[in-house]
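Researcher: Here's the sequence for the chain we discussed earlier.
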Amino acid sequence: MSCSNGGLPRHRTARAEWETRPHAEGEPARHVVELSDIARMEHVRANVWRYEPGAAGRRHRHPTQDETFVVLAGTLSIYVDDPPQRCDVPAGSLIHVTAGTALQSVNHGGEDLIVYAHGWPPEDQHAELLPSAV
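Model: Thanks. This is the structure I predict for it:
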């Protein structure tokens, strides 16, 4: 659905639903709403992530994409650099990770973690996967 101004579409609205990412049986899940796909964003990558307590993302490195993480609920434990260093980012805070920096997001808390992730410039290739920091 799009909103219009004088007949010219300028804005898009869409229903956002959580997609559960693959995880091992018994392992806490991560869920994502891929905003850039839903809204057809061409110049940025944007996602909202929900990590169940104990869930961990894959450690990775983007060669050309900076990423900014805004914590909406819970506390993000993010392992950055090589060797990994843990940074705890509480709700209402953000962390910016420059391209080429290894990172891994983890929810060590007892409640769901909700994070808005913004990446620029968008990459056409997959990130380099690295051994886990946790």
